[in-house]
Design a protein that fits this description.
CATH class of the largest domain: Alpha Beta
Strand order of the largest sheet: 8-7-17-18-19-16-20
Helix content: 25-40%
Structural class: alpha/beta
CATH architecture of the largest domain: 3-Layer(bba) Sandwich
Distance between the termini: 16 Å
CATH superfamily of the largest domain: FAD/NAD(P)-binding domain
Radius of gyration: 22 Å
CATH topology of the largest domain: FAD/NAD(P)-binding domain
Number of strands: 21
Number of helices: 12
Strand content: 15-25%
Length: 398
């Protein structure tokens, strides 16, 4: 075939439908699971949807992406929300992001945070550290680091934080002492809005319904229950020739292949150096909130790092779901829980160099990494759709 797409998650489905829009029919999608959607799949729990791979929301900030997706699930089938997100810390709940809302903390905590921010390295002209933990203190101050960033990231990733690089944290704003002091005096936040400040969620379904509809349109071109075990870069083959294509789009984790043939030693070494975390999504039927959509929980005594109050965005639902790193999860009788072995790519030291080597060598064989796992980046579903559209445009013009 001309195109083989590995994985029927959001990025693979978006790419395949873009091909379809261009009149291309010579493509195949292979999917490990028995249904499409990847991490964005949903299940019916207690009569309403629960997203088994964690929270996946449709952002409002990418008009081209929304226009594309509205073809499959119309805007009239969606509710829109102004995001309400909290952080549970120091015995209270404050609004997200942390650094813009320390004025909501008890007064003694406010003072300590302000003193810490004033002495942060980025505010006092100290040189930028290389070590992750030192860098967070340098960037945000010791109090934010110790009260929020360290415990939250330790729970989310369950790795030594110094195994992580600092390159991915540069999107964090410098925490200005003057702006923070002003926010405390005026009792209002400063800074830019977080991602998904407004978001869509289906009125009648979980987030997985959207991706099932993308899959339905190209159902004649999808093979389910097909694990991609062996990738041959030189031959453009999967599983020893079961599938062969001129161009392969890989949205599966590079580390999920049992064997990669025709690759350099450096490529194999780079793949083996990629790391990821696994999560459990656990249903909490009796935990609800009146207004908060989701909450971040750095407290190490609580097993979950994030809780989503589905009753605030899924019509007619009750309860919540909690996201727990698999290493922290202790199963109990009666749990309704779903495990995602591949949840988050880890931004470990040296990852950018490994990723670049993998993507460049693969592309030289007309094999392209796409999406969260193909590009080994913590991308949201709306962004991977945009990336799929751009890649389809690029390859379609060749």
């Amino acid at each position: 075939m001309k195109y083989l797409i590995i994985g029927a998650g959001p990025s693979g489905l978006a790419f395949a439908n873009c091909l379809y829009d261009k009149g291309e029919r010579d493509f195949r999608v292979i999917e490990l699971e028995e249904e499409a959607g990847g991490l964005a799949r949903s299940r019916d729990v207690d009569g309403t949807p629960l997203d088994i791979g964690g929270g996946h929301f449709m952002d409002v900030r990418r008009p081209r992406v929304n226009e594309f997706l509205f073809r499959f699930m119309g805007e009239d089938e969606l509710n829109s929300f102004d995001r309400v997100t909290k952080i549970r810390t120091a015995g209270v709940r404050i609004d997200y992001p942390y650094e813009a809302n320390i004025w909501q903390l008890p007064i003694d905590e406010e003072v300590e945070h302000l003193k810490s921010i004033a002495s942060a390295g980025c505010n006092t002209g100290q040189s930028e550290p290389v070590n992750f933990r030192d860098w967070i203190i340098w960037k945000l101050g010791r109090k934010i680091a110790e009260e929020y960033m360290f415990p939250y990231n330790e729970k989310l990733f369950s790795v030594d934080l110094n195994s992580l690089g600092t390159y991915w944290m540069n999107k964090l704003p410098d925490v200005s002492f003057e702006d923070t002091l002003r926010s405390c005096l005026m009792k209002q936040p400063y800074g830019s809005l977080p991602g998904h400040a407004r978001f869509y969620y289906p009125k009648k379904y979980g987030s997985g319904e959207l991706w099932l509809r993308l899959a339905e349109r190209i159902k004649e071109n999808i093979d389910y229950n097909v694990p991609a075990k062996i990738l041959d870069l030189e031959k453009g083959e999967i599983n020893g020739g079961d599938y062969k294509a001129d161009i392969i789009i890989n949205t599966a984790p590079w580390t999920s292949f049992e064997e990669i043939r025709g690759a350099s030693d450096g490529f194999i070494e780079a793949v083996s150096g990629l790391c990821h975390s696994s999560i459990v999504v656990k249903y909490l039927p009796d935990v609800e909130d009146e207004a908060v959509n989701w909450e971040y929980v750095p407290d190490p005594s609580v097993d979950y790092h994030r809780i989503l109050y589905r009753n605030t965005f899924a019509e007619g639902s009750k309860g919540s779901w909690a996201e727990i790193n698999l290493k922290r999860y202790e199963a109990k009788a009666g749990d309704v829980a779903f495990i995602s072995d591949y949840a988050y790519p880890l931004n470990t030291v040296g990852k950018p160099e490994k990723k670049d080597l993998i993507l460049k060598e693969a592309a030289a064989h007309n094999i392209y990494g796409l999406g969260r796992w193909g590009e080994w980046e913590h991308y949201n579903s709306d962004l991977v759709v945009e990336l799929a559209m751009k890649l389809a445009d690029k390859l379609g013009s060749r």
